[in-house]
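thought: fold this chain, then report.
action: predict
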Amino acid sequence: MPSRPSAARRLVARAAAITLTGALAGAVLPPAAQADALVTRPTAYVDPMIGTANGGNTYPGAVRPYGMIAWSPTSTTGDQTSTGAANGYEYGVTRMRGLSLTHVNGAGCNPGAAGDVPIMPFVGDVTSSPSADTKDAVYASGFSHDNERAVPGRYTVGLDSGATADLAVSERAGVADFSFPADEPANLLFRVSNSLNGSEDAEIEIDTAHRKVTGSVLTGAFCGRRANGGTNNRKSYYRLYFSASFDRDFATTGTWRDSTLTPGATSASGGEGYATGADRAGRGSGGYVGFDTSADDDVRMRIGISYVSQAGAEANLRKEITPRASVDDVARAGSAAWDRELASVRVGGGGEAQRTSFYTALYHSLMQPNLISDTDGRYPGMDGKPHRVTRGQKAQYSNFSGWDQYRAQIQLLALLKPRIAGDFAQSLFNFARQNDGVWDRWVHVNGATHVMTGDPTAATLATFYAMGVRNFDYEGAFDSLARQATVPHPDGLSDAGCPGQCTGQRPNLAQYLESHYAAHDVCHCWGGAAETLEDAVADAALGRWARLLGRDEEAAAFEERGLWWRNVFNPEAGDGAGTTGYIQARNLDGSWVTPFSPGSDRGFAQGTSATYTWMVPQDVQGLAESMGGREVAAKRLDGFFHKADGSWSVKGGDALRYDPTNEPGIHAPWLYNALGQPWKTQETVREIVNTVYGTGPRGLPGNDDLGTMSAWYVFAALGVYPQTPGSATMLLGAPLFPTALLDRPQGGDIRISAPQADATHPYIDAVKVDGRASDRSWTDARLVTRGGSLSYRLADRPNTSWATGPAGLPR
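observation:
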């Protein structure tokens, strides 16, 4: 039946043509004409398919910067209670059961989070309950990537069934054109209960007189299926409301609950629970509307969502998308919004693939945080009650993967979008005040999920303040975070959710304050060694923040606590091959947890001692001294990135070496700067950029973790990287592009010039900061807080004398 694929291809071609027309309006001049001309239309280089394979866990659907709605497929591999990968989409899975309204970028546990209200264009009569289709054999459809197109703000797909979907979004609403074969039944299924993790309850109402479908789902359960503590999270914490209106009458209606289909009905309710497989299969509710497509095969739907109320969803739709707006109209506005956001960094030169990798990484970095407040400022609090944004706050944001983001993504946000960063900081403070003063380390919508370890919010807000962000209650936030770090909370003695989602945010704090390390046998945490390192990073950041606030007594106390990592460094721990001195977990009585192996994760969280031993960004000189000096430390670091034969080992898979797919060691390539061998940072970062990142679905090394891995690439390509949380100091590497302009609304622009930048010049020969020669491999806070310029002279071989003097090394 050739007409079906060709119709799909026509739709994709139409969307592509409109996108291309928009891109050409501000097109980049041909490279041959102006090789170093700054990019003027960044969206022309964004490929949302990057990271949709290889465990990147990104999604390709339509979303605006920081948007609430993210309209993207929910895939299926034959199990209605699961998907092909975390967050609903995997490039290798070409069958879907709906287009869901909410997604999270790169959350690491399968099925991830959100994926609320899958809407499925279905060709055929609805003759049984879609919830009873537990294998997704009937009410799902295959598709080809040839009939799929994703660009910023728009997603288009043609299904093998002959149906097509063309989606575009604003921040809280969207518009879709669904088309169907003219000679077959045409239906839209609203799977209201089928969120990625399941649901506690759901409801749907079909209003035939007003051509509307409304409803909601009560859900949550982020990482609720994890074996290491996930059962603690099988709970609801948010309700998503939606309101959809259509441009034509319904020909048929119906609803279902569990296995019962009720043709002609207009309301239904019922959840699925939070189990998986047979324990959940066949449960749930939803509804469908059918259309007569004999004369017109296209159906237009406008939809708004809200986390507050049905009225909020309708108001969001009314305010953001006009009644006559087309998909093309909304898509053009979305593309323009993304161009404005991405133009905060305009690069010049480089190859097509490099620009694609760069702007897609920036795109993924600026997808979050995500709006959860309505256009009227109302949002759901962590106490389950509705609230309004505080005075001066423009919006309430959420989705904070703290353990991941505090290492790179939040620094990029503060550098480029300080207003958003400030509102995000205030948002997290608002949540803490609604949560008995507790700052949760992984916040999804308004839910405290407790995922991972440490106290990343302290590191995050201290970094925001250090980098010049001021539009939040920074005194109140500091007081609250300092209290969390000094006053034990009852949750800190609970093992609920442990090890992966321990309820306590400063677990067994009284013991930690007495012993100066988290005792592995009584810590009520994921791992005592990891907890100690994470808390030391957070406390050092709080110390820097207190110093900037002029609170010197508190600064001294927290700065001292930032050195407690030394209490889990065992100088006698070895690898059996002559290398000694590793981070190792300790028991309450002071004994070391045994047996020990550098490749073991005992006492650690998603990493090994070999990786975590380098996780002391706040005291690199102290770490080097503990290892026997900078030369010894640098030689050990060489072995972290190379095999015994000297070949590179930077792609992961070796418990003793660098893992680019997870966060504890992603700062390690930049440690050479502090060890007096900055040329090794330059060559190591370039090796990772060239071999681990790329274009195409496999272009990310692993789970994007809400833009963290993408932010790492953005910094690496610009030739700068944040030294440590709580600081605005930037470490220097070799830029990938000859020119770059960071156009910043506050703090002053930053201009980066590296005329020799290309594949054969990965080394720094000399640097000027604001026109003055510098022999330091780092910049102080003024570059970030005031703006300025970096001018590089690059070379094809290392300059082993530049920035190596002990007095000028980053501390």
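thought: worth noting. The first strand starts at residue 62 and ends at 63.
final: tokens above.
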